[in-house]
Design a protein that fits this description.
- The chain has helices at 2-8, 12-18, 34-39, 78-86, 99-108, 137-143, 215-229, 265-290, 327-330, 357-364, 381-386, 490-504, 536-559, and strands at 54-60, 88-90, 93-94, 147-153, 172-176, 187-191, 194-197, 200-201, 204-205, 236-241, 297-303, 334-337, 346-348, 352-353, 394-400, 423-428, 431-435, 470-474.
- The model is unreliable at 1-47, 536-541 and 554-560 (pLDDT under 50).
- A hairpin with a 2-residue loop joins strand 8 (200-201) and strand 9 (204-205).
- The longest helix is centred in the middle third of the chain and has 26 residues, at 265-290.
- The protein is 26% helix and 15% strand.
- With 560 residues, the protein is α/β, with parallel strands linked by helices.
- It has 13 helices and 18 strands.
- It starts with a helix and ends with a helix.
- The protein has two domains: 54-392, Alkaline Phosphatase, subunit A (3-Layer(aba) Sandwich); 399-448 and 458-506, Arylsulfatase, C-terminal domain, CATH 3.30.1120.
- Strands 9-8-5-4-10-1-11-12-2-13 form a ten-stranded mixed beta sheet, sandwiched between helices. A four-stranded antiparallel beta sheet has the order 15-16-17-18, covered by helices on one side.
- Residues 532-545 have a biased composition (Basic and acidic residues).
């Protein structure tokens, strides 16, 4: 008991230095008391291993399609390469072109048009969040006994307390609420004078953790602590949403060692950030093995969208970049690694989308999907594990009715079926259709990174046909979107436009409110956080006004 007391008294720094306490050593992880465990009905070493797998979902931020060793990158990613090689590589895997959309679809299993988040991202100053009537993945996993923990970037809104991660199904949360920020100070300015601190532990600012630790390493240490504290005989869901490799481009000095030869400063910094991320994922994997989770675990790795060439990312040989509906914006690095896979060391070329994780993971966890939840995702576990055909035949990449309209778009160009001024994209079997303004469309080859910034002279520029607002590609035959077939196959275009129109009939109104001045961190102790509070005085005054009106009406009746 004396030894336990001494260890419990160690500082956070000591714990980081000497390693976290484990079930193996003491049966008592950080923050877990004997009383807590007794309350949960647990005893040291008791309980048979659960048939429900441990689920670890790792989401990288802005990692380009080419930016992994097994896709030919000059950046070394030995951990990702090994985990993918021993698991199942997803080589027909799609996400959304930006942060909030991908995260919302992962956590709800629904397309953006069905949550109202079909335009852009949730801005820090907007009174907006993932609609509260949407059931989330951690909520469903909690129903069947999972302990649920999130570490990293939220970016699904926080203007009111009910929007926070701990109110949306997570037992614990440690990370940032916004889309980006400084990796060391966790400080973010949305605009001049609108700046604040953005590191949270559960529902409070985590000032105690503000030790200047690089966020990738800090988040990994938190994951190790969670794994050391939990009983591996009980199922756990860990959602690790790393900030890396999103801008600002920052990394500890030692990770630049192998990349001094990269002339482009942004690419060099990006490479160092990715090297640190790869090491972090190795440390997470080692912790899973050390604390007894690995043999019954499913590790899923995904990027949230394509890379941003101006910030060091590469999607070569795909077209376009983050923020666009070209393949470079939405085709992602992804793989599943698990001892539970039947076809290990394989490649899955079946169609998979980020919405599919919701029903897949709930089914694996032995949970129930309510009949009244209209999901857009499919259970694709047998597709991944056993190599069966995917139940998915189409993907609505998005319909954004308030994005900048294409000047030359019209109903006529859409055969009277669809207004081609609207930004939209859809995939049906081998075919992909885009309308409106799909976004930056260059191909950016590796040599474009030879100078200080991606050199536009090296890019393969696109010569636009005047007035063009519809594109059709056979993605299976032409994954690089070089041959537009819209003029050659008008009947296919019409078919896909009709499918778009059908989807659009099910869309809910867009949620994209103007910014709220009350969001300024200066009004909230210098911290980004919930600001929307019902004014009790206003409530009381409204009640008193209503009471006064009733009295007046009664007096009038009496006088009459």
């Amino acid at each position: 008991m004396l030894a336990v007391g001494v260890l419990a008294g160690l500082s956070v720094l000591s714990l980081l230095t000497y390693g976290y306490l484990s079930w193996d050593s003491l049966g008592l992880g950080p923050g877990v008391t004997e009383a807590t465990r007794t309350g949960l009905g647990e005893e040291l070493g008791a309980g048979a291993p659960s048939s429900q797998p441990h689920i670890i979902f790792i989401l990288a931020d802005d990692q380009g399609f080419r930016d992994v060793g097994y896709h030919g990158s000059e950046i070394r990613t030995p951990t990702l390469d090994k985990l993918a090689a021993e698991g199942v590589k997803l080589e027909n895997y799609y996400v959304q072109p930006m942060c909030t959309p991908s995260r919302s679809q992962f956590i709800t299993g629904k397309y953006q048009i069905h949550t109202g988040l079909q335009h852009s991202i949730i801005r820090p100053t907007q009174p907006n969040c993932l609609p509260l009537d949407n059931v989330t993945l951690p909520q469903k996993l909690k129903e069947v006994g999972y302990s649920t923990h999130m570490v990293g970037k939220w970016h699904l809104g926080f203007y009111r307390r009910e929007c926070m991660p701990t109110q949306r199904g997570f037992d614990t949360f440690f990370g940032s609420l916004l889309g980006s920020g400084d990796y060391y100070t966790h400080f973010k300015c949305d605009s001049p004078g609108i700046c604040g601190y953005d590191l949270y532990e559960n529902d409070n600012a985590a000032w105690d953790h503000d030790n200047g630790i690089y966020s990738t390493q800090m988040y990994t240490q938190k994951v190790q602590q969670i794994l050391a504290s939990h009983n591996p005989s009980k199922p756990i869901f860990l959602y690790i949403a790393y900030q890396a490799v999103h801008s600002p481009l920052q990394a500890p000095g030692k990770y630049f060692e192998h990349y001094r030869s990269i002339n482009n400063i942004n690419r060099r910094r990006y490479a160092a950030m990715l090297a640190c991320l790869d090491e972090a994922i190795n440390n997470v994997t080692l912790a899973l093995k050390k604390y007894g989770y690995y043999d019954n675990s499913i590790i899923i790795y995904s990027s949230d969208n394509g890379g941003q060439p101006m910030a060091g990312g590469s999607n070569w040989p795909l077209r376009g970049s983050k923020g666009t509906y070209w393949e470079g914006g939405i085709r992602a690095v992804g793989f599943v690694h698990s001892p539970l896979l039947k076809n290990k060391g394989s490649v899955c070329k079946e169609l998979v989308h980020i919405t599919d994780w919701f029903p897949t993971l709930i089914t694996l966890a032995e949970g129930q999907i309510d009949e009244d939840i209209q999901l857009d995702g499919y259970d694709i576990w047998e597709t991944i594990s056993e190599g069966r055909r995917s139940p998915r035949v189409d993907i609505l990449h998005n319909i954004d009715p308030i994005y900048t309209k294409a000047k030359n778009g019209s109903w006529a160009a859409g055969y009277g079926i669809w207004n081609t001024a609207i930004q939209s994209a859809i995939r049906v079997n081998h075919w992909k259709l885009l309308t409106g303004n799909p976004g930056y469309s260059d191909w950016v080859p590796p040599q474009a990174f030879s100078n200080a910034g991606p050199n536009r002279w090296h890019n393969e520029r696109v010569s636009w046909t005047a007035g063009k607002t519809v594109w059709l590609f056979n993605i299976t035959a032409d994954p690089y979107e070089r041959v537009d077939l819209s003029a050659k196959y008008p009947d296919v275009v019409k078919q896909l436009l009709r499918r778009l129109s059908q989807f659009n009939k099910t869309a809910v109104p867009v949620r994209y409110p103007p910014k709220d001045p009350r969001s300024n961190p200066k009004l909230n102790g210098g911290v980004w956080g919930p600001w929307f509070k019902e004014d009790e005085k206003k409530k009381k005054s409204d009640k008193s006004k209503g009471a006064n009106k009733q009295k007046k009406n009664k007096n009038k009746k009496k006088a009459n």
